[in-house]
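User: I'm putting together notes for a lab meeting next week and I want to include a structural view of one of the chains we've been expressing. I don't have a solved structure, so I'd like a prediction I can at least talk through. The sequence is below, exactly as it appears in our construct file.
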Amino acid sequence: MWYREFFPRSRPRAVRGGIKAQSKRGTFGQNWWAQRWIAVLESFNIGARLGRGRSYARNGQVLSIDVTEGKVKAQVQGSRPKPYAVTIAVTQLSAKQWNEVVQALAQQALFTAKLLAGEMPQDIEQVFQDIGLSLFPQKSDDLVTDCSCPDWSNPCKHVAAVYYLLGEEFDRDPFLLFRLRGLGRDELLQRLSRAAPPSPQPSSEQGLQESAREQTGPLPVDPAVFWASATLPDNAFGNVSPPPVSGAWLRRLGGFPFWRGETRLQDALGPVYGTASARGLQAFLGERPEDTQSNDRRAPR
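Assistant: Thanks for the context. Below is the predicted structure for the 301-residue chain, given as structure tokens.
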């Protein structure tokens, strides 16, 4: 191609501490909303730059990503000493349009419940379409990308790398899609809560009756008896054992946002959780951990 005479293929400078893709090889984004975002990028038909963008994302060439309402700013290390500045601007919805979206979403209790659980409802696009809008960019005018590199193509491989990492981050936090359209997570949930139909409240008499049923008995008159701790039976805690899955909460949280480490966070902290679990069980049972490096060594004769 003629442009190779002006912009020969170059090799990016090695980077330490960059943001690396955490997904398995060949995939960026597991959930449908992340895959839709990647599909938007691939619809630009930028050829080999997609492959190089994926390599940049996996090798940690992206130094930083900052997501705000309607805009993404990033720094990507290329072949030159100074990192390239990348900007991705997304068309924001107006205040009136967001009011229409919130009112439509609030009418569907399932949508609100799934959003509160951090999941994108499967039919949410239909809600936007019914009022003549779209959550995902639909045409090139919805996205304006810019990079300080000399490549004439837009988007270039540096922009593509940021696109892929954003898709992976959308997998973890779907609310970033709403933020790019102009409304952050907290404000969206607050508006949904205010717009939701009020649930029926029990009468004051019903509340008193329920409160009375919850009482298990009169409180002790003697303050010393009230504040004294009761003797617990031997089986008060049941069968105490280490959890069947080590680091369950860590696994449930998923990938760390824009992780920079060489090793995944789950893999790095997994052994720590296993050791802490064993030590916690020993402390609960009143046992002393084995001292593998005893200081009680006999002096040589």
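A couple of points you could mention at the meeting. Strands lie at 62-68, 71-76, 84-90, 143-147. The chain has twelve helices and four strands.

User: Perfect, that's what I needed.
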